[in-house]
Amino acid sequence: MVALSDHDYLSPDDYLDLESSSDSKHEYIDGQIYAMAGTGGIHNIISGNFYIALRSSLQGSACRVYFADLKVKLQQGRRFYYPDLLVTCDDQDQPSQAFVDFPKLIIEVLSESTEGFDRGKKFHDYRTIPSLETYILVNSQEYIVECFQRTSQGFWLLKTYEGLAAIATIESLDLDIPLADIYASLELPESVA
């Protein structure tokens, strides 16, 4: 990642002002901004399918699903990330805000250029959010969904779901979502593991 700011430090408020009028999205880490990579068709189909599955399953609940353009605020505003999808069930997160403070679920669709960051530093940062109960990584090259669930002891338990016949369980929302729904209209290779 290469910082785009020509300043030594950009305050969180300056970042939010800049981002509100920007034609492209940037993530913010400790005073520096980083341009977001564009996504492709497979990424968009997976994100859209997952959004539809979540939205229809959570209809009528206190939870809201957000798609791609809403930031998550971390570490008292020292960091802002754009997850592919997020769910908040906290009424303190108002739809009029440019960011969410209390996500319950965050989903990232993996790409070759972002996978290392999504699995590493970004997941490390997301784990600092007390309200976050589930972090999901969705493979865009094979039918694989990885669900990291925070346990009552504060550990992160990984459950991996592979193949179109699998059904991903999202315990924090009491939902089961078939991988066939997440990957609908896509033809990817079956896992060779």
Series of H and E elements:
HEEHEEEEEEHHEEEEEH
Residue share in helix: 10-25%
Total helical segments = 5
Low-confidence runs: none
Q: What is the spatial order of strands in the main beta sheet? A: 3-6-8-9-10-11
Biggest sheet overview: 6 strands, mixed
Shape: globular
Q: Determine the N-to-C terminus distance.
A: 30 Å
Average per-residue pLDDT, rounded, comes to: 93
Strand content: 25-35%
The number of strands is 13
Supply the helix-strand structural class. Answer: alpha+beta
| Radius of gyration, taken over Cα atoms and rounded to an integer in Å | 16 Å
Q: What would your notes on this structure say?
A:
The chain has 193 residues and is an alpha+beta fold. The chain has five helices and 13 strands. The chain has helices at residues 12-20, 41-58, 115-119, 121-126, 179-182; strands spanning 26-29, 32-35, 64-67, 71-74, 79-81, 85-88, 99-100, 103-109, 134-138, 144-150, 156-162, 167-170, 175-178. The strands form three sheets. Strands 3-6-8-9-10-11 form a six-stranded mixed sheet. Strands 2-1-5-4-7 form a five-stranded mixed sheet. Strand 12 and strand 13 form a beta hairpin. The two termini are 30 Å apart.
